[in-house]
């Protein structure tokens, strides 16, 4: 037989374990987002990476074939900035050498009907950029001066939108 004291201690213990499990489950170990990645095109149609750094820094960017299965994500390009990107806008061509950038993995040919995602990162995993998913058809709808990026609404819904570079600079950091 359990005494009343033992039951209350046991209940508190179970309650504490339940709270601990709930906290552990909801406190993911993700890299905080403090930049927004996007894509654009140059006047000649070449694909550009676009990065709006909001408050800290970003060291580079990676483009991968997007997949819900992490084991099937394949890197198709990766770039490291010669100096950390500080708050503000940065753009660079993804398919050719660019001043201030080193291609740590040159861009592989992109194919139709494949979804790609571009995101930014820091070498020490202290900060990241939200990613943008796109297909070649999405790229083909862009004109020079436009940026496609994932915008987050006030209620937390994300959707890809296309805006002018000026609108991107003004709005991208509002929900990071």
Give me the number of helical elements. Answer: 3
CATH topology of the largest domain: Immunoglobulin-like
Largest sheet: 6 strands, mixed
Distance between the termini: 55 Å
Our count of domains comes out at 2
The fraction of residues assigned to DSSP E strands is 35-45%
Topology summary:
Blueprint: H1 4-26, E1 33-41, E2 47-53, E3 58-65, E4 74-85, E5 88-93, E6 101-105, E7 116-121, E8 128-130, E9 132-134, H2 136-140, E10 146-152, E11 158-164, H3 165-171
Parallel strand pairs: 1-8
Antiparallel strand pairs: 1-2, 1-10, 2-5, 3-4, 3-7, 4-6, 7-9, 10-11
Describe the structure.
The protein has 176 residues and is of the alpha+beta class. It is 20% helix and 41% strand. The chain has 2 domains: 30 residues; 143 residues, Immunoglobulin-like (Sandwich). It contains 3 helices and 11 strands, in the order αβββββββββαββα. A hairpin with a 5-residue loop joins strand 10 and strand 11. About 12% of the residues have low confidence. This is Lipoprotein. Keywords: Signal. It comes from Streptomyces lannensis.
Task: Produce a short descriptive summary.
This protein has 176 residues and is an alpha+beta fold.
Features:
single chain, 176 residues, alpha+beta, Immunoglobulin-like, 5-stranded antiparallel beta sheet, 3 helices, 11 strands, 20% helix, 41% strand, Lipoprotein, signal
């Amino acid at each position: 037989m359990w005494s009343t004291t033992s039951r209350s201690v046991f209940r508190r213990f179970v309650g504490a374990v339940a709270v601990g499990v709930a906290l552990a489950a909801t406190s993911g170990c993700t890299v905080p987002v403090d930049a927004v990645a996007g894509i654009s095109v140059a006047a000649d149609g070449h694909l550009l990476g676009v990065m709006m750094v909001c408050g800290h820094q970003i060291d580079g960017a990676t483009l991968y074939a997007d997949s819900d299965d992490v084991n099937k994500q394949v890197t198709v390009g990766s770039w490291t900035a010669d100096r950390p990107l500080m708050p503000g806008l940065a753009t660079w061509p993804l398919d050719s050498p660019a001043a201030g950038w080193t291609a740590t993995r040159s861009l592989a040919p992109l194919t139709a009907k494949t979804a790609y995602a571009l995101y930014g990162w820091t070498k020490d995993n202290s900060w990241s950029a939200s990613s943008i998913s796109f297909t070649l058809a999405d790229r083909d709808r862009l004109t020079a001066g436009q940026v496609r990026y994932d915008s987050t609404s006030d209620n937390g819904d994300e959707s890809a939108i296309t805006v002018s570079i000026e609108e991107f600079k003004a709005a991208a950091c509002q929900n990071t």
